[in-house]
Specification:
By secondary structure, the protein is an all-alpha fold. It has helices spanning about 1-20, 25-70, 75-80, 90-95, 100-120, 125-130, 130-135, 140-175, 180-210, 215-235, 255-285.
């Protein structure tokens, strides 16, 4: 109970500090700008070409029906599956998804780790470099310090993603006459819930990098380099499973078990990264 109380106390203080130093505002504005830019572009596309997009979807469905009746007929989904790792079920699922939500979730999966790198690069070493960790640890444990910092950054990004999702949803609702409210709300809620384990993984990675690298600027550079390295590793046929990026594709899957498996993979990677940061902080001379 004492650990939980200290964790919350540290998280609350760190979050207030982030708000006072405008770090939270910067994160919010960057994410909102990206969300509205993506949403605005995709809403414009749907307004301009919505009829053609729906016609193309209908034609592809008709082609698939023909392929199922004629063995030698081309299966269009086989071609579309080339961009989804060969998974035709995901290709079919994505094709019938609202374009604005599809693009927004893709933007989240692509750029949220970079935003975390920009905001949370010094999640641990800021306290160490400023020697404030010594005073904090007179009243609490190193575990509470790490968990409190993680919680504050997690709450920050939780608030940012909620604001971005609500802004996008309202904008699409106002601008798209064909926007189907309830199905879109359910899909957006699903995407937001998947953002939580995804974001936890990369915040924990930032904590690990920050615990290993002292300099603020250097830890940001290392974090970006690690993200690039993990992205490259995920494309390996033999070692791709060692990278969190390897599990992003199944977040799009229509199969619940595949989605849950990927979410659990991100949680597992996050716990591994957090364990590494905790071990480093535990044995470090502060």
């Amino acid at each position: 109970m004492r650990v939980l109380q200290d964790t919350w106390r540290i998280a609350r203080f760190d979050l207030m500090t982030a708000i006072r130093t405008r770090r939270a505002l910067v994160a919010l504005l960057i994410y909102l700008a990206g969300a509205l830019a993506t949403g605005g572009a995709l809403v414009w596309v749907e307004n301009q070409f919505g009829d053609k997009i729906q016609t193309a979807r209908t034609a592809i469905d008709a082609s698939e029906a023909m392929a199922s009746m004629q063995a030698d007929a081309p299966n269009v989904y086989e071609g579309l599956a080339s961009i989804t790792g060969g998974d035709e079920a995901i290709a079919r699922h994505l094709l019938h998804m609202p374009l604005v939500l599809l693009g927004f979730f893709w933007t989240t999966l692509t750029f949220l780790p970079l935003l975390i790198a920009l905001v949370s690069y010094d999640i641990v070493n800021s306290e160490v470099n400023q020697r404030s960790a010594r005073f904090i640890l007179l009243r609490t444990s190193r575990t509470s310090l790490l968990l409190g910092k993680m919680l504050s950054h997690g709450l920050l990004f939780l608030a940012v993603t909620v604001a971005a999702n609500v802004a996008l949803f309202l904008y699409a609702w106002m601008k798209l006459p064909t926007f189907d409210l309830l199905p879109a709300a359910g899909l957006l809620l699903r995407f937001w819930m998947l953002t939580i384990p995804f974001g936890f993984c990369y915040i924990a990675l930032a904590a690990l990098v920050s615990s290993l690298v002292d300099g603020g600027g250097l830890s940001m550079a290392v974090m970006v380099g690690v993200l690039i390295g993990l992205g490259v590793l995920s494309s390996s046929a033999d070692l791709g499973f060692l990278s969190p990026s390897f599990y992003k594709l199944n977040l799009w899957s229509p199969k619940l078990l595949d989605v849950l498996g990927s979410a659990l993979a991100f949680l597992a990677f996050g716990l591994i990264f957090l364990g590494g940061a905790s071990a480093r902080l535990r044995w470090r001379d502060l």
